[in-house]
Amino acid sequence: MKKAVIIGAGMTPVGEHWKLSLRDLAVEALLKAMDDAGVDKVDSLYVGNMVSGPFVEQENLGALIADWAGLGNIPAVKIEAACASGGAAVQEGVKAVLSGLEDVVAVVGVEKMTDAWPSDATRYLAYAADAEWELFHGASFVALNALIMRHYMKTYGYTEEDLALFAVNAHANGAKNPYAMFKRPIKVETVLKSPYIADPLKLFDASPVCDGAAAVIITTPEKAEELGVPKEKWVEVAGMARAIDTINLANREDLLTLKAAKIAAEKAYKMAGVEPKDIDFFEVHDAFTVMAALSLEALGVAKKGEGAKLAKEGQIAIDADYPIQTMGGLKARGHPVGATGVYQTVEAVLQLRGEAPNQVPDAEVGLTQNIGGTGSNITVSIFRRV
Amino acid sequence: MSRPMQVSRYWRHFREKYRLIGGKCENGHVFFPYRGVCPVCGSKNVEEYEFSGRGKVLTWTIVRNPPSGFEYYKPYPLALVQLEEGPVVLAQLTDVDPEEIHEGMEVEAVTRKVREFEEDGIILYAYKFRPVLK
Predict the structure, then answer these.
(1) How far apart are CA A90 and CA A222, in angstroms?
(2) φ, ψ for residue A231, nearest 5 deg
(3) B126: distance to nearest CA of chain A, Å?
(4) Is B112 on the interface with A (CB under 8 A)?
(5) How far is CA A241 from CA A103, A262, A268, in A?
(6) B104 at the A interface (CB within 8 A)?
(7) Sheet harboring A5-11: ordered strands across?
(8) What confidence tens digit (pLDDT) does each residue in A11-46 have?
């Protein structure tokens, strides 16, 4: 079977980019990735984006971004899977390369969220929920996650303080990432003192509304060699899978199991030939602190109900057994929704190349997990140093 | 600010939203809302099934930063209610002091206004759940 390698990565800082548009951000990240790979043309472009239509009245992002980046008349499409759009776009890019139909593929994830009023942004994000049976009743995305958070705490006896540890860890790492939105460490008290936005979920349990773009260039080892890309730059896509679950939270078999993540992770581990203990770092989807806990459980790193225990035992820090969010996670790096999965990929690439600001010593294998909806559409990808 | 373009989008769901009608498949699985394919076994032999409207609060929250269109109602309680027949449904709680809400609280469905669309817009009604009247 063919193999796919990432040979270039680029990103913009995550933040409130008042002076930059969606296309500015996407083109900047894309050109940086192409420059990093040393290529001036690609065979196709996949754009990870969630809600550009409502946010900036722009769809057809494939044509927009390929056109403005000067890529010529190549095939280019937008891939949408809610907040997992970025992860899905990377996987579609990899599939294109593995199929043999395209040799050099560009993937860019982009989201421009700060051009909308906050309450409209809250509405647009909830489009990833079930419009008729969730948003209709006034459910925001935060509220749906708050329902899960309360149930998690109640079922396993955790406190708001326990879950706050995930935010503290993310900020400690984000503080050293020049591309992160929040570059300052926080304490548990900071989280606890922040206002409730949907009880028991507080402002600091949640990732921010922000703008950003990230991009990668994918090809085969043979083509990478032909292009003269030095091997130190290659990162192999060792395993990947994705799965869906009910879109409506109320219809879940079990509110506290990210079944889609579990299914995707099992397939990805098998494809890569690794187990959770072989993974050197995890970029999980901590859009809300409780999601970090549930993700660790679904990925087989912690037993069911023990995800938050891992944080309490100090096992998620850079120098611990299961480092997560090494670049700040969604909480501190920021969560430009449709771009997040590509940011995670870029961060995995930097770790595996040994270029990360919070370098995990001798990192050889890393995992990214990208959640769309309240767990309804999830991607898991495993990357390996070549 | 989004506006409803078609009233039909809302009246399509009157049976579910006014009468809490879901589905029951040939193998006895009940679910809400109604759909033509059983989400449990995949059977396409499905009949309408009317729920009693009684249930218990499974988990709940207070929405303080609502999506646009719901600002007028904030803060409002939102819950996942487990119906006595089994399925779980998401809805707002009404006629309740937020301090009194707790997991396991017995509730019953009532019809209430959910949202208005500006001055000349339509008004949406649906189920909300209130504490069971003794």
Answers:
(1) 20
(2) -60, -25
(3) 8
(4) no
(5) 21, 10, 5
(6) no
(7) A76-79, A44-48, A105-112, A211-219, A5-11, A235-244, A377-385, A365-372, A281-283
(8) 999 999 999 999 999 999 999 999 999 999 999 999
- Rounded CA separation A371/A261 (Å): 8
DSSP for residue B132: P
Distance CA B126, CA B13 (A): 9
Q: How far is CA A121 from CA A111, A150, A199, A298, in A?
A: 12, 24, 20, 29
Q: How far is residue A26's CA from residue A221's CA, in Å, rounded to a whole number?
A: 26
Strands (E), chain A: 5-11, 44-48, 76-79, 105-112, 196-198, 201-202, 211-219, 235-244, 281-283, 365-372, 377-385
Whether A335 sits among the annotated catalytic residues: the reply is yes
pTM of the model: 0.97
Rounded distance between C-alpha atoms, residue A340 and residue A286, angstroms: 11
Identify the active-site residue in A17, A171, A285, A335: A335
Calpha distance A188→A193 (Å, rounded): 9
* Mean pLDDT taken over chain A: 97
- Determine the Cα–Cα distance for residues B12 and A182; give it in Å rounded to an integer: 45
Q: How far is CA A130 from the centre of its chain?
A: 21
A137, A151, A196: residue with CB nearest B91: A137
Q: Count A/B contacts: CB-CB distance under 8 Å.
A: 110
Q: Which two tokens stand for residue A133?
A: 């049976």
CA angle A69, A379, A358 (to 5 degrees): 75
Residue type, A236: E
Identify any residues that bridge with A235 across adjacent strands, giving them in sequence order: A6, A385
**B108: β partners:** B54, B130
pLDDT digits (tens, 9 = 90+) for A253-292: 999 999 999 999 999 999 999 999 999 999 999 999 999 9
